[in-house]
Amino acid sequence: MIKNNYKIDIGFVITKAPLESSIVEGIVTLAQHAVDKEKTVGIFLISDGVWLGKKNQKNGKSIADLIKKCVEVTISKDHLEASGIQQEELLSGIRVTEKPYTELVERVMERWHQVITI
User: Fold this and answer.
1) Which residues form the domain of 20?
2) Amino acid 29: pLDDT
3) End-to-end Cα spacing for the chain
4) 84 in a domain, yes or no?
């Protein structure tokens, strides 16, 4: 169960690796623009999207900047393990979940007003 029950204006589900597609860079930029317009933003990293949460990755600075601006970033523990990424290798402020699909459904159905998935 998610402890924070506040609503999020825009939620992003990222399933692609940062180097896999320029779309990931566009999504990160879109999230930044939403924050700049005082929208609340959530990001959920699953599948190859977990690579975006690893330190020293392309777009990593942008994700770190979003976290500093109170963007909620959650990552799947199962997908981290499958990718070989250790939790110590993650950017500071990323929340790791052991129940990614339960939490993702809750966010999409109950908390996020709009959802963008790539």
Assistant:
1) 8-117
2) 87
3) 25
4) yes
